Amino acid sequence: MEKVKITLPIIVEGRYDKSAISGFVDATIITTEGFSIFNNKEKQALLRRIAKDGVIVLTDSDGGGKQIRKFLSGILPEGSIHNLYIPKIAGKESRKRKPSASGNLGVEGMEKDVILRLLAPFVDGENAPKNSKMLTKVDFFEDKLTGYPNSSERRRALCRECDLPEDMTPNALLEAMNLLYGYEEYKDLVKKLFE
Asked: How far apart are CA 29 and CA 19, in angstroms?
């Protein structure tokens, strides 16, 4: 089977994530070794160096993944991170005896098609999003996803509809929408959910 070529490095949490993705993706895949990245100065320096031209961060959709993502955003150059978010799908990885604390699959448990859909904008170095018109914070405000008393509930509803983690920040959700959906697809989703 021919692998999909991604020119940007991909940062994942652990070796099982790396192993799963490397089966169908030809890219530099680097692990944080879970939380050990917090104290590993050499690994931090390596990540800073490779991130200068951009890096993809793909962590689990649980509390640990969120902590690692937040840490990386604090040590890597501003604007260098392309955050990808896996959907929340209940289940456990086949190698594990019981589900994770969150009860959801991690990166290693995702179907190949899900990962490929997330990586699609980056295939063969094409870093431009699929859609020509990008969503902005103004779109989120006009659609009452920010700036209104019930904005957080509306964002949670949108996340549920798109199988995304419900606790995403507005900026993270905006980035995810631009990566996963075209402008019109997003507008159709909002119309379906809230009108």
From this structure: 9
